[in-house]
Design brief:
138 residues, mainly alpha, 5 helices, 82% helix, 0% strand
């Protein structure tokens, strides 16, 4: 088994980041758009309530985005997986294949990126888009 050089590892990490960036951007835009719409419909909403609304949207959208990542990455090596299964290759050998392992790493790293992006985006969208309205008692 050959060792990977430092430049090869850098390329693999770069591919994982680039691959996940599309879904991370999509999730961030979805959350921000939802918070913006809530703030437009209810201008008196507090920042805390706007953040809570963003987190509710984030929970719903994160599940679908993670599934999308899984399907996209597994689809790229589906022919390879079918070949392994037809040959009767043990599961251990399939998971240790470089291409299959790379797709698993891409899916996991993309999921971590989504999990980090969702609450951060909800917080920023709530803080920036909602006015800091205090209920006045006159």
């Amino acid at each position: 088994m050959s060792r990977l050089s430092r430049s090869t590892v850098s390329v693999i990490v770069s591919l994982a980041c680039i691959g996940a960036s599309g879904s991370v951007m999509d999730l961030a835009v979805d959350i921000t758009s939802a918070v913006n719409e809530v703030v437009k419909k209810c201008p008196s909403i507090s920042r805390l309530e706007a953040i809570k609304s963003g987190l509710a949207v984030a929970r719903a959208a994160m599940g679908t985005m993670t599934t999308t990542l899984l399907l996209a990455y597994s689809g790229t090596c589906l022919a390879l997986l079918m070949t392994f299964m037809a040959q009767g290759t043990p599961l251990y050998n399939i998971l240790n294949n470089n291409q299959v392992a790379a797709e698993i790493i891409n899916t996991v790293s993309g999921s971590f990126g989504l999990a980090a992006t969702a609450p951060f985006t909800a917080f920023l969208a709530g803080m920036i888009l909602a006015k800091n309205s205090k209920k006045r008692v006159d």
